[in-house]
Specification:
By secondary structure, the chain is mostly helical. The chain has helices at about 1-15, 25-55, 55-75, 80-90, 95-105.
């Protein structure tokens, strides 16, 4: 189900790239370019951290959804499909985080 939601949302985000920035929030983000999108991802990441520290599960769910949404906008802007991220996560399963991090510095 997660794959389907991400894939469907990604398709919507890609379709809205050509919409009028005055009538589409997503188009307005694309219009701001990568730096504008990255600024929004950063803001949402900070809000997610604050919500996690606050202890309210509903707030954390809400802020995490905002963060994931804006990350998907970023990925769509860079033409990276959610399936590529999911494949990377799947490839990391069964490996320790320390091992995975070390392997990034070897290449």
């Amino acid at each position: 189900m997660t794959d389907e939601v991400l894939t469907e949302l990604y398709a919507i985000l890609r379709a809205r790239a050509g919409a009028d920035p005055k009538t589409s929030y997503v188009a307005s983000l694309y219009h701001k370019g990568l730096d504008g999108i990255l600024k929004k991802v950063g803001e949402e990441a900070v809000e997610t951290v604050i919500a996690a520290k606050g202890g309210d599960p509903a707030a954390l769910i809400h802020e995490t959804a905002d963060l994931w949404f804006h990350c998907l906008v970023m990925l769509a802007y860079r033409n990276i499909a959610p399936e590529q991220i999911l494949a990377e996560l799947k490839a990391r399963m069964g490996r320790s985080g320390i091992e995975e991090k070390t392997s990034r510095h070897e290449g």
